[in-house]
Write a structure and sequence with these properties.
The complex is a heterodimer of chains A (281) and B (438).
Chain A: H1 2-26, E1 41-45, H2 60-71, E2 77-81, H3 84-92, E3 98-101, H4 108-111, E4 114-129, E5 150-154, H5 160-164, E6 168-172, H6 174-183, E7 188-192, H7 193-203, E8 211-228, H8 234-250, H9 253-262, H10 265-280
Parallel strand pairs in A: 1-2, 1-3, 5-6, 5-7
Antiparallel strand pairs in A: 3-8, 4-7, 4-8
Chain B: H1 2-19, H2 33-48, E1 54-61, E2 64-75, E3 78-79, E4 86-87, H3 92-105, E5 126-130, E6 139-143, H4 150-155, H5 172-183, H6 197-205, H7 222-234, H8 238-247, E7 271-273, E8 279-281, E9 287-289, E10 292-294, E11 313-314, H9 316-327, E12 331-332, E13 335-336, H10 340-347, E14 365-367, E15 372-374, E16 389-393, E17 397-402, E18 407-412, E19 415-416, H11 422-434
Parallel strand pairs in B: 7-19
Antiparallel strand pairs in B: 1-2, 1-18, 2-3, 4-11, 5-6, 7-8, 9-10, 12-13, 14-15, 15-16, 16-17, 17-18
Helix pairs in contact in B: 2-11, 3-7
The chains are: A alpha/beta (281), B alpha+beta (438).
Chain lengths: 281, 438
């Protein structure tokens, strides 16, 4: 009887071991994806090819931001969203660490709780669809030349100067603005040359030559990173980022990232000059 | 000698007539020819009353076509024919679901896989929650309780939406989210944008969800996401995958994403009907009704948008071959597309729990992995047997597969708006079922 009990005990121990080892080895079916939410999150408005999930590394600007933080041994998560209104939500409602992009529509009131850091200065040109304006449109640095026409603006863009010159304004995302140009519901748009090339190659490759650039710079817009002072680490991250940015400008990483994406050496030089000026302030 | 020749010609004519498929033998497969004739009456009445311009209808049983008839017009001066090509729109979805399940059978994905594993933009999704009137911001976003899985997409439990149902379901949250969709240039895909499907899907993934995954059944753009998922997982463009893996093996020779030049004459025009006798051609302009945008002529262009929920053009006969493959548990004419176990999983299993798939049907209808499935016969919409699975398309097309009776019913028309057609579709199924005579 005793022997039987001992055998049963041994069998039981063996059984428990045999059951627990595989369990410990495999672990439960828990998706690790839920464990990756990051408090240190930057919400970015996509502006391809500068900020976009469709470009390697998230685009030049995302790479610069990651490189600068990496220099300071810090990591952040960049979440790219398609709508300016979502950027506003994350900034005002969720007190996100930072927001990033062009034409974010930040109000004067909101600017007081932001530290802005320019990352790229983009010169823009006006663009129109030639088949609908066979005689051409001329800007030549004077908006009055476009009086009576309709301008396609990005959401969040300040359009007061157009309204003052009797130019109608319709708003939309870049992709829909191109469509509206072709349909004739708007007459011209403004866009950095790199973005223009990207959209034309990707979405209008067959008739890209019908989109014509007007002479003269329409505007100069900075793609900026805005740290949120309402976030508990906003100031700390802003200081660290500036340090990291200075490092990558000095050690050549900033330039090499730009060269990889932009491939225009005079533009890279211009950006470096601007960045030196900004960091020396 | 002359008599012999005449007899020979008569015999050849008879056999060629039969072989051409112009003659069928319903009795051989347990269907009453007299009762099937009621379908002629139903369709002709709708044509005479100018509710529809024309239609092609097929009933098949036990692997054989028992009824196949074209009636009315495909264009003002063109007859509807058995080989007329139709925009089958949402009847694309089952084809897309089968594509995904083929990859599933090859071990390339699991139904439990988070979609973000293949399309990273789906990671860390948020759900939209409207805020009360007067709040500083009109909505807030809360993290989804879990990620959207492949199974959620197949069963429409992902939390994604379509835009056009916002014409009928007026809740604030839906209206708010549809406005965000529009702002982000998300469309239902019934008009074909000048971009690739992946571009749209990546934007859609970064917008909020309507509800937490698994906590609703809502007909949506999920099939369009699945189409892109096929591209990501297979490494092939979606149209190429569908052509090489489904259309060619099943000899669906008239199924395409964009109509080839040489078949343009066979594509039916779309008709607008008020269901009261006013019937006219839709014309070339988009048909816009609130949140619904239809572009019938887009199928004639040569674009690159390949919507897994909407883009396929096909014939009744081609779709019959696809339906027969499903009815045969994944095989047709010696070509195996799916295994029996997978077809069972898609068509015989409710994947939406206590929800009902009421969008095209009523209570008592559940959803599998790409099809609505009749769960019982005690509700308003009855397609003949428990286990019947089916779906429809927005220009008035519908198919129904009854595994118990081994019967397939397919109806194709090209008429808008679709909301008027439920009575016609349901009556057709009553007539098809009433013809069962064994």
């Amino acid at each position: 009887m005793r022997t039987t009990n001992k055998n049963r005990l041994n069998f039981l121990i063996l059984l428990i071991f045999s059951l627990t080892i595989p369990l410990m080895a495999t672990g439960p079916r828990v998706s690790t994806n839920f464990l990756t939410l990051d408090e240190n999150e930057i919400y970015a408005l996509d502006i391809p090819p500068f900020i976009s999930t469709e470009v390697s590394g998230g685009g030049a600007i995302s790479e610069i931001v990651n490189a600068a933080f990496s220099e300071e041994k810090m990591s952040i998560a960049i979440t790219t969203v398609p709508l300016q209104s979502m950027i506003k939500y994350y900034f005002t409602q969720e007190k996100a660490l930072a927001i990033m992009g062009r034409n974010l529509g930040v109000s004067e009131k909101d600017k007081k709780s932001l530290i802005s850091i320019p990352l790229y200065i983009a010169s823009e040109n006006y663009l129109y669809y030639k088949p609908l304006h066979p005689k051409g449109l001329e800007f030549k640095g004077e908006l009055l030349n476009l009086k009576g026409l309709t301008y396609g603006a990005s959401k969040g863009e300040d359009t007061s100067s157009y309204k003052n010159k009797n130019i109608k304004v319709k708003k939309g995302r870049a992709l829909s603005l191109f469509k509206k140009l072709k349909k004739g519901t708007i007459d011209f748009i403004s866009m950095p040359s790199l973005s223009r090339q990207w959209f034309l190659e990707k979405h209008h490759s067959k008739d890209k030559n019908n989109f014509t650039v007007m002479e003269g710079i329409s505007k100069t817009v900075a793609i900026k990173l805005y740290f949120n002072l309402n976030h508990s680490k906003g100031k700390e991250f802003s200081d660290s980022f500036k340090k990291g940015l200075r490092s990558i400008v000095q050690n050549g990483k900033y330039a090499s990232i730009l060269k990889k994406h932009i491939k225009n050496s005079s533009d890279v030089k211009l950006q470096l000059k601007f960045m030196d000026e900004f960091l020396s302030r | 000698m002359r008599n012999f020749l005449l007899k020979l010609i008569a015999m050849i004519s008879f056999f060629s007539f039969t072989l051409n498929g112009s003659d069928y033998n319903p009795e051989k497969v347990g269907l009453s020819p007299e009762r099937l004739k009621h379908i002629d009456t139903l369709i002709d009445k709708h044509i005479d009353e100018k509710k529809i311009a024309g239609a092609v209808v097929m009933v098949a049983r036990k692997g054989e076509i028992a009824y196949f008839r074209a009636a009315g017009k495909a264009d003002t001066n063109k007859k509807m024919k058995k080989d007329t090509i139709f925009r089958i729109v949402s009847m694309t979805k089952p084809l897309t679901s089968v594509s995904i399940m083929m990859l599933y059978e090859e071990g390339k994905l699991l139904l439990s896989d988070p979609v973000s594993k293949y399309i990273p933009e789906f990671k860390n999704q948020k759900v939209l929650v409207p805020m009360p009137e007067g709040s500083e911001f009109e909505y807030k976003l809360v993290p989804a309780k879990r990620e959207v899985t492949v199974r959620d997409l197949l069963s429409h439990t992902s939390g994604l939406l379509y835009l056009f149902p916002a014409n009928y379901f007026l809740d604030k949250k839906r209206q708010m989210l549809v406005e965000l969709y529009k702002e982000a240039d998300i469309t239902d895909g019934f008009c074909r944008p000048d971009e690739e499907i992946g571009d749209m899907v990546k934007r859609l993934a970064r917008l909020p969800l309507y509800e937490h995954p698994g906590e609703l059944w809502d007909y949506s753009l999920a099939s369009d996401v699945l189409g892109y998922l096929v591209e990501v997982v297979s490494g092939m463009k979606f149209d190429k995958f569908m052509t090489e893996r489904i259309f060619k093996p099943l000899k669906m020779k008239d199924s395409h994403f964009y109509i080839p030049e040489e078949k343009r004459d066979r594509l039916s025009k779309v008709w607008l009907s008020d269901w009261k006798g006013s019937l006219k051609l839709a014309g070339d302009k988009p048909l816009i009704n609130g949140n619904l945008a239809l572009c019938p002529t887009d199928a004639q262009s040569q674009g690159k948008y390949l919507a897994g929920g909407a883009s396929v053009l096909s014939t009744v006969y081609d779709y019959y071959r696809f339906a027969q493959m499903l009815l045969n548990n994944g095989e047709l004419d010696g070509v195996r597309v799916l295994s029996r176990k997978t077809v069972e999983l898609m068509t015989a299993t409710n994947h939406i729990g206590d929800f009902d798939a009421k969008f095209l049907h009523s209570e008592g209808w559940k959803f599998g992995l790409g099809f609505a499935i009749q769960k019982d016969r005690s509700h308003d919409v009855d397609s003949g047997s428990v286990g019947t699975f089916e779906w429809a398309g927005i220009y008035s097309t519908r198919f129904s597969i009854d595994p118990k009776e081994e019967k397939i019913t397919i109806f194709m028309s090209q008429t808008s708006p679709f909301g008027m057609h439920f009575g016609l579709w349901d009556r057709l199924l009553v007539l098809s079922n009433s013809a069962v005579a064994d």
